[in-house]
Amino acid sequence: MIDSENWSSLDMDVKGEVYEGLLARNADDVRGGAGQYFTPRPVVRAIVEVMQPEARMRISDPACGTGGFLLATYEYLKDRTTNPKDVAYLKTRLLHGNDLVPNVARLCAMNLFLHGIGTNPTYPAISIGDSLEVRPDPVDMVLTNPPFGKKSSFTIVGADGKNQTDKISYVRQDFWATTSNKQLNFLQHVHSMLNENGRAAVVVPDNVLFEGGAGEIIRRELLKRCDVHTLLRLPTGIWYSPGVKANVLFFDF
Question: Among residues 55, 82, 66, 80, which one has the least CA distance to residue 115?
Fold first, then answer.
């Protein structure tokens, strides 16, 4: 069946759908592998429809995984965009993603490319690196599902050959609190990404904002500086990792 197709002559959308289907199948089959980078697409599409992105926005995902939010944004806008200049902007400038894992970033770049997105090398759609290290240029909208897991850490091999684990904390002037909690750091980072009229939707673990210490500081600052208007509790059983409880936090700058 595969050999009978002339793949080079297929429409971009067809090839993109095939590739996206393979990513979904792999995430379902390998729950401890690619599944951790794959947000269920019905959840992604619902969030994008609620956020209603516009054709001349700058939209980013600082933990893009295989590109679900970026691709859903493109699908939402492509049938709503008719001006040729806006169409060109949609495919080359509107979307940007970043991921820490090089192989996952390559999967994302290929996923977008097969849909005709990010084809201008002057404006790369995907970057590889640690999003939390620096404050990026401001954007109009952030849609993201940062990696779950409480602490950021790295392993050191000592002179005695034994492994030691040390926590990673990000000291940034624009952060309200210094912590090794990844979700709290990503929340601060997303806030720092938004321009003065920016909007965000962030998938967070259940109760992440109800912690004490740094969590309390970040919660107070976020409520003071932004319009945190919706906390959507997602049902369990929709994720590729069983038992995961998550919410979607919506806020405007």
Answer: 66
What is the Cα gyration radius of the chain? 19
How many structural domains is the chain composed of?
1
DSSP bridge partners of 139: 194
In this predicted structure, the answer to whether residue 33 has a pLDDT above a threshold of 50 is no
> What CATH number should be reported for the domain holding residue 112?
3.40.50.150
- Structural domain of 131: 7-252
Whole-number pLDDT of residue 7 = 40
Domain-located, residue 155: yes
Q: 140 pLDDT exceeds 80? A: yes
Q: And the tokens for 42?
A: 């019905």
Q: What is the 3-state secondary structure (H, E, C) of the chain?
A: CCCCCCHHHCCHHHHHHHHHHHHHHHHHHCCCCHHHHCCCHHHHHHHHHHHCCCCCCCEEECCCCCCHHHHHHHHHHHCCCCCHHHHHHHHHCCEEEEECCHHHHHHHHHHHHCCCCCCCCCCCCEEECCHHHCCCCCEEEEEECCCCCCECEEEEECCCCCEEEEECCCCCCCCCCCCCEHHHHHHHHHHHHEEEEEEEEEEEECCHHHCCCHHHHHHHHHHHHCEEEEEEECCCCCCCCCCCCEEEEEEEC
Q: Residue 161 in contact with residue 196, Cβ under 8 Å? A: no
Establish if 230 belongs to a structural domain. yes
pLDDT at 73 over 90: yes
